[in-house]
Design goal:
Elements (H helix, E strand, L loop, with lengths): L1 E4 L4 E4 L7 E6 L10 H19 L3 E6 L6 H10 L3 H18 L15 H13 L3 E4 L2 E4 L1 H4 L11 H6 L15 E6 L14 E3 L1 H13 L3 E7 L3 H16 L4 E7 L2 E3 L2 E2 L10 H7 L2 H8 L8 E3 L1 H22 L12 H22 L4 H15 L7 H17 L4 H25 L3 H13 L2 E6 L2 E6 L2
Parallel strand pairs: 3-4, 3-9, 9-10, 11-13
Antiparallel strand pairs: 1-2, 5-6, 6-7, 7-8, 11-12, 14-15
Helix pairs in contact: 2-3, 4-7, 4-8, 7-8, 10-11, 12-13, 12-14, 13-14, 15-16
Length: 466
């Protein structure tokens, strides 16, 4: 299996530090709002990478953090008149709901930054002790000049370029424009934690170093996220982590490409953020996942209504092919397979091999999906039980287990059916109590889930209409 390493800028054979085990860290959300579709691409890519590694037999420990303290969270909490902790709880719950809808499994460990202050402070103290950080008026900064020429090797930046492009205020307390905050002194009204430098809170970058080291050790196999995190976030993580330990921090850096919205870059100025919370109310969330996996993860991807509709149609073709075979009964017909079936049986093993090869080549989902539709083309010709059924189901099962697609629809249906059972019983109780307003409200809820309700002399009759 080969993975493109952002640090070396080439595809490398994957070999974990400990044979058979993989330690993987993916930067999680800053929980001040719902996640947008660009966030979801990174989270889905790492979820799929984890699935592929597990399918290959690795024991994967996946850590994904929640950033639950930063400037945006403080501003949003103040706007809403609640505490930062209350805001974090609200949007962590929202993330869990959105992630489940698009098939993202919970990470092995999902730590919060605010629960790791001792670990954060300990790393900062190490950096100060080694001369890689300095305190200034209650803040603590990483000293990029003391760290040396290694700073910038992940992103290709260098401190001279950063200095020439920076404007330093007269009262600037940093030694160099590229120096970044490890600890921020408390401002009036802000939440704070005690530290050797006075009350304050951590900078954004240091939290990930602390949490990854706590749960995965000082050197981890895979770390990454969206391409926008390469600089400054991951560059700074790399510098502070290796500065503190003197050991390599990450063996494989993995970053996905940007996501545009209707051919425009997502930005605050354009106000074109598409929230997963909103889009999954309008479109089958499994189609959203399928769309986000349809291009190679390092390629830019354009989100548009037309392309989402195409993803819905393509996913429907896959479900049709799968259902045609999954529910065939073995031995339903006692006859020899026809020529099309024999060809499909011979072809399936080759297609499965090509499918695996595509994913082993730096998670090439575009080629893997192409192989899948080649299978579908042949499968639709040979709709009979026997070896053809087994061949098709084997390939589709591999696709599902490694991508998380072809299974969410049933999960969503099970959830809806369970919810409908509760509503049906509640409506029966409402009618017995002659609470007609509540009865009508519950009927409308059932209708929204796709159930028709008819009141008869024998009681209510409920049927699924879609």
């Amino acid at each position: 299996m080969k993975i493109f390493n952002t640090l070396t800028r080439r595809k490398e054979e994957f070999a974990p530090l400990t044979p058979g085990k993989v330690g993987m860290y993916g930067c999680g959300p800053t929980v001040y709002n719902y996640i947008h579709i660009g966030n979801a691409r990174a989270f889905i890519i790492f979820d799929m990478l984890r699935r592929v590694l597990e399918r290959r037999g690795y024991d994967v420990t996946f850590v994904q953090n929640f950033t639950d303290i930063d400037d945006r969270m403080i501003d949003r909490a103040n706007e809403q008149g609640i505490t930062v902790a209350e805001l974090a709880d609200r949007f962590i719950a929202a993330y869990v709901e959105d992630a489940e809808a698009v098939g993202i499994r919970p990470a092995t460990v999902q730590p919060r930054a605010t629960e790791h202050m001792p670990e954060i402070i300990a790393i900062i103290e190490k950096l100060i002790g080694k001369g890689f950080a300095y305190a200034a008026s209650g803040d603590v900064y990483f000293d990029t000049q003391a760290y040396g020429s290694e700073y910038g090797r992940l992103s290709g930046q260098n401190t001279e370029d950063l200095e020439s492009g920076a404007r330093v205020a007269v009262d600037e307390i940093k030694k160099h424009p590229a120096d970044f905050a490890l600890w921020k002194a408390q401002k009036p009204g802000e939440p704070a934690w005690e530290s050797p430098w006075g009350p304050g809170r951590p900078g954004w970058h240091i939290e990930c170093s602390a949490m990854s080291m706590k749960y995965l050790g000082e050197t981890i196999d895979i770390h990454g996220g969206g391409q926008d995190l390469v600089f400054p976030h991951h560059e700074n993580e790399l510098a502070q982590s290796e500065g503190a330990t003197g050991k390599p921090f990450v063996r494989y850096w993995v970053h996905n490409g940007f996501l545009n919205i209707e051919s425009e870059k997502m930005s605050k100025s354009l106000d074109n953020f598409v929230l997963v919370h909103d889009i999954r109310q309008q479109v089958d969330p499994e189609a959203v996942r399928f769309f986000l996996l349809s291009a190679h993860y390092r390629s830019p991807l354009n989100f548009s209504r037309v392309q989402i509709e195409q993803a819905v149609a393509a996913l429907s073709r896959l479900y049709t092919a799968r259902d045609n075979y999954l529910f065939l009964q073995e031995g339903a017909e006692d006859r020899e397979p026809n020529e099309a079936e024999r060809g499909l049986c011979e072809l399936a093993d080759d297609l499965l091999h090509r499918f695996d090869e595509a994913l082993d080549d730096d998670l090439n989902t575009a080629d893997a999906i192409g192989v899948l539709f080649e299978l579908v083309k042949h499968a639709n010709i040979a709709l009979q039980p026997g070896c053809a059924q087994m061949a098709v189901v084997k390939v589709l099962d591999a696709f599902h287990s490694m991508t998380g697609v072809l299974g969410l629809a049933e999960k969503e249906q099970e959830r809806q059916d369970a919810g409908a059972d509760t509503l049906i019983k509640a409506r029966e109780d409402a009618r017995k109590a002659k609470n007609w307003a509540e009865s009508d409200r519950l009927r409308d809820e059932l209708k929204a889930l796709g159930y028709a309700v008819e009141d008869t002399a024998q009681g209510q009759k409920v049927s699924k209409v879609r």
